[in-house]
Amino acid sequence: MKSADSVKDDSPIYAASRNLMVDASFGWLIKGWQDFRRAPWHSLTYGAIFAAIGWLLIYFSWVSEIYLIIGLFISLLVVGPALAFGLYDISQQLEQNQAPSFRRERSKALHEMGHELMLALLLSLVFMFLLILTSIVMNVVTISGQAAASAAVPLSNTAFLVVAVIFGGLLFCASSFALPMILDQDADAMTAITTSFHAVWLNKSALALWAMLVLALTAAGFATALIGFVLIMPVLGYATWHGYRETIITK
Q1: Would you kindly state where each structural domain of the chain is located, as residue ranges?
Q2: From CA 102, how far away is CA 62, in angstroms rounded?
Q3: Which backbone phi and psi does 248 adopt, to 5 degrees?
Q4: Cβ distance 94 to 35 under 8 Å?
């Protein structure tokens, strides 16, 4: 007979996921819009904060060095989860037929701060690793006769775009369901991330469509000078929560 420790060691490091229909994400958006209508003032408040952060990043992108933008972006990895937690908690409160409360949303975000910071740290390390790797490659390609280690050449726009695309893909896979799982199950960051990656891999077609919808709506937000984020970001947050509920099998 196996001991309790061996049984525990054999358990998977991620939660099980359901198989989704390819068009499942459209249902998530419909439910997200319904949540927006049930909690309009809370939704608009969070949406306005997201829009304000976007304006801040755009402003500094015009007047500052790229390294300051990178620092702001990494800071957003810490602030973003806290804002997303508030949106997920609103959907959870609505599920329980409760009136949304800013106090509960703030309390929930603070309670999970440790897991949020760990998730932000892991994603920041990945981002910095990609920057360093791309910088080394660019130095080797563009500088002849010099040691790459001693070269100090800034990243080109193309290289930075490559980093952004790779990091964006990793961020999507890692965070699609990680934050809702941390909120709902009090899961640690690594378990939440591996669960999210597993769910995305299991439902590649459905999550690819979801990623395209997120990109399209985000582009629409930028096309409206970020004013559209006031509506779009809350709906996407609520839709993400419903996607988690439909995808991840919880106890």
Answers
A1: 23-99+108-247
A2: 34
A3: -85, 130
A4: yes
